[in-house]
């Protein structure tokens, strides 16, 4: 099955958010679309079919990764945002990531010389910046995501948790030296590390401690000395210092720089032709939304 449409934002008149989603949830085209996404991820992905789930739209966005911006295929469902690396355009994806929409927040970012039409996707589990090919695609994406989030939290009768967002990582290229001590210059030997609490790039001595950040991982995570100190101060004021871990020597990820602790979606793909998608000229069906929200 191909989603063959040369028209961007080919919005069809299904109303997924009306009448308990029944119309779209049970629609044959919705089932087929979701099954096709599952098939494209193959064994590397999770089962995406679930009662009540609607695929709202999909398209290519350029995701700011650690080393550079890279094209990723995004799928917006009414309860999750899924993305993955593109192996074969519209046919094969891997490195699937699933972000629950409950606590997703969006934040606009200003255009820069080279990177335009971007915004932040913030969540407790993962936060990053994406760029759309055009400003209208950006508006469409942001509007659809926001509608899904607000509908979801209304439907579940919950409120978004404030300020538990995972930080957006500072790209490697933005830091030639440690952002904390400002002395340590990075090299092949002196590797960069990212603080999991604030996202800055720091040297090993400036990130010798770990904290438990349960929303990100069940294991203690590397943090910069500032964040560690702040947390220690906080918890000595409070009663339960449960999420403090003593400074450690670089256990666990010693051999490593951050490549072991890096996002696994950040690895370079073999098919370099995809880099062309980084340029904003990748207009061939960048995105398609299937549903028109009624709200
Ligand atoms: Zn340092
Ligand atoms: Zn920090």
Topology:
Elements: H1 22-25, H2 28-41, E1 55-64, E2 69-77, E3 80-88, E4 92-100, E5 105-108, E6 118-122, E7 128-131, H3 135-156, E8 193-194, E9 201-202, E10 209-211, E11 221-223, H4 225-237, H5 258-261, E12 287-289
Antiparallel strand pairs: 1-2, 1-7, 1-12, 2-3, 3-4, 5-6, 6-7, 8-9, 10-11
One zinc ion is lined by residues 178, 180-181, 184, 202-203, 205-206.
Organism: Octopus sinensis (East Asian common octopus)
Domain PH: 54-150
GO molecular function: phosphatidylinositol binding; zinc ion binding
Characterize the largest beta sheet: strand count, sense, and whether it forms a barrel.
8 strands, antiparallel
CATH architecture of the largest domain: Roll
Number of domains: 2
How does the helix and strand content classify structurally? alpha+beta
Oligomerization: single chain
Tally of DSSP helical segments = 5
Biased composition (Acidic residues): 250-269
Domain PH: 54-150
Keywords: Metal-binding, Zinc, Zinc-finger
InterPro entries: PH-like_dom_sf (IPR011993), PH_domain (IPR001849), PH_domain-containing_F (IPR051765), PH_Phafin (IPR037871), Znf_FYVE (IPR000306), Znf_FYVE-rel (IPR017455), Znf_FYVE_PHD (IPR011011), Znf_RING/FYVE/PHD (IPR013083)
């Amino acid at each position: 099955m191909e989603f063959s449409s040369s028209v961007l934002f080919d919005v069809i008149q299904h109303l997924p958010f009306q009448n308990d989603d029944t119309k779209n949830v049970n629609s044959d085209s919705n089932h087929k679309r979701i099954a096709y996404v599952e098939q494209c991820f193959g064994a590397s992905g999770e089962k995406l079919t679930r009662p009540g789930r609607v695929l709202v739209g999909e398209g290519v966005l350029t995701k700011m990764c650690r080393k550079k911006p890279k094209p990723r295929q995004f799928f917006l469902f009414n309860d999750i945002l899924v993305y993955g690396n593109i192996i074969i355009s519209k046919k094969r994806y891997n490195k699937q990531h699933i972000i629950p929409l409950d606590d997703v927040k969006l934040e606009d970012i200003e255009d820069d010389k080279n990177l335009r039409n971007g915004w932040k996707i913030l969540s407790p589990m993962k936060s990053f910046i994406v760029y759309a090919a055009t400003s209208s695609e950006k508006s469409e994406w942001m509007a659809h995501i926001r509608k899904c989030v607000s509908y979801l939290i209304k439907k579940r009768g919950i409120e978004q948790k404030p300020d538990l967002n995972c930080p957006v990582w500072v790209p490697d290229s933005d830091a030639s030296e440690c952002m904390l001590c400002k002395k340590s210059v990075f090299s092949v030997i002196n590797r960069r590390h990212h603080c999991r609490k604030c996202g800055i790039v720091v040297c090993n001595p400036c990130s010798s401690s770990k904290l438990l950040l349960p929303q990100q991982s069940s294991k203690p995570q590397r943090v910069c000395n500032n964040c560690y100190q702040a947390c220690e101060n906080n918890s000595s004021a409070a009663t339960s210092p449960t999420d403090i871990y003593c400074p450690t020597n670089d256990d666990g990820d010693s051999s490593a720089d951050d490549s072991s602790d890096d996002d696994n979606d950040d690895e370079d793909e073999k098919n370099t032709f995809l880099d062309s998608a980084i340029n904003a000229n990748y207009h061939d069906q960048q995105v398609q939304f299937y549903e028109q929200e009624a709200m």
